[in-house]
Amino acid sequence: MATSVKPPYLLFLADAEDRLAAKTAFGLHYWRSEQCVGQLRFPECRVSLDLPDLLLEDAVAQGARTLVVGLAPAGGQLPQRWVSTLAAALQSGLDLASGLHTRLSGIPQLAELARSLGRKIHDVRYPTGEFTAGSSRRRSGKRLLAVGTDCAVGKMFTVLALEREMRTRGLSADFRATGQTGILIAGAGVAVDAVISDFVSGAAETLSPDNDSHHWDLIEGQGSLFHPSYAGVSLGLLHGSQPDALVLCHEAVRVVNGDFADLKLPSLTECAELNLRMARMVNPGAQLVGVSLNTYGLSEEEARRTLAEASDLLEVPSVDPVRTGVKSIVDRLDQQVGRTAAIA
Amino acid sequence: MATSVKPPYLLFLADAEDRLAAKTAFGLHYWRSEQCVGQLRFPECRVSLDLPDLLLEDAVAQGARTLVVGLAPAGGQLPQRWVSTLAAALQSGLDLASGLHTRLSGIPQLAELARSLGRKIHDVRYPTGEFTAGSSRRRSGKRLLAVGTDCAVGKMFTVLALEREMRTRGLSADFRATGQTGILIAGAGVAVDAVISDFVSGAAETLSPDNDSHHWDLIEGQGSLFHPSYAGVSLGLLHGSQPDALVLCHEAVRVVNGDFADLKLPSLTECAELNLRMARMVNPGAQLVGVSLNTYGLSEEEARRTLAEASDLLEVPSVDPVRTGVKSIVDRLDQQVGRTAAIA
After folding, report:
1. pLDDT tens by residue, B198-215
2. Global pTM value
3. A201: which chain B residues are within 8 Å (Cβ-Cβ)?
4. In A, residues 243-282, which contact B (CB 8 Å cutoff)?
5. What is the predicted ipTM?
């Protein structure tokens, strides 16, 4: 696997103005709090995680191995002040990890310092592995992939919630990250949208290699087959993942594409059907096992009705991972695909 | 556009053993003979184009601007003898162009020589442009894309034949290349399978920019929506191309995927339907205008019957570009899409 970031983490919040700006840090803390020893903030920072403020030396003393950049700088360019802090982190003994477009390893001061000190810089947006075209070979173990009607409809959140629920039940399951925030959460993964297009399916194959027959790889989806900018990425990921199970993700109130206001989103039925059709080219047993709706903004009753409608329509459990949890999908997964696999 | 190779060309055949080994050179000469001044061969070369053997100096004297590597070395590594010849070509005043995996610009001797002499090295397999994600904005002018049941079923050949026929009729049409051989033939293009996956649709958009309303971009297809290794590339190209017209390409006798013997190819109907469905996400008016079958190996009667069956099935003209030419597709294009566009 291309990237492997060492926990525990010190989360760098810099001068974040709100939670949205620091969503990477919030996501990492939400899903991997046991791996986060503290936060590092500039005095004017306006957000806080439920973590102690630590100086670099204290974080290292408490076991931190990596400083994770948990926000994006306003404007894009990395402020010199950040670079100074990142350099100090390297000097204090920490590796660096970042999901920013700007490569930390492309900043000469940081690159030279890391080299001379033997530290690692993980620019997780940029895969470092060598990939090849997909072989289409079937692999042992089981795989679930989140697919969606659009970008940013909760695919990563859904898959992480499934991992948490499955692990709570003692099932063998691993989140497999395909985007920068997911990679920082998992500590490993491949940012498939940054892979050479010829090798996307092959990269997806390396992401979920052969495994025990009862093991589940829970693969973070990217984009949508219905998003005209990114559908190719989604399809390459789908084919390389060879999923046994699909979970369809959607934001309940969204009716048009988030990037293109004149582009209607597909119906849940249409989206499920096309994804299953494409998945069955590489895995004839692929099945839909659940719908995950982000019902934020709906009343409790509206949400309940919306979820019930989706269940009726697609004949699978529907959940909002935040509002209802994902237990019913894990139940279904166990019954439907578990048995299917055992019989097959 | 990322790549722009200057004609006229001197075609480097080195020690090619057969036509297949030198298929790039043969393709370039077949489609752009007016741009080829001669061939350059080692004494043991076993193939010949219908071109004079020229020394480097003579080629330059006759106007050649670029030496094109027209074959792949057996084994993959570039023999030192080739490097010597390529260096001599730079010294004699020629640029270099190559579609090899091995980058000529990655060979220090050639890179330094080119820099000191002010010559260009075009490694057309590797796009050099800066691309972004597709905008999905509709562009003026008309576009045709070749799609296929598999890789290597004649998509490039079909599109080049269409260009030749349309230009013969005085229509305004340009071949738009998306693979290395096509780029060498066109002198420009983008090898979309080497573009970062996030940017394939965007790269396809730059390949066929706004144009006159009667102008046709004839876009070389890549892979197949039904090829599990490359379907993502094909879909990104399809979405970025926003084709008004699709031509479906297939090798008549092929029933399983060329890379995966246990994978049945789709029927022509299924392949047309899925490509049209995906194309209509970005261009609701997308239509199938023809089927192009490679009927090599069939008798004249078998070929005629196979072509007739395809026409009946899909209700569009069917051709074998080699056996029948592509006139009937151009007729259809003019009637069907031309009128549609004029009415719309």
Report:
1. 999 999 999 999 999 999
2. 0.94
3. 228-232
4. 259-260, 263, 278, 281-282
5. 0.92
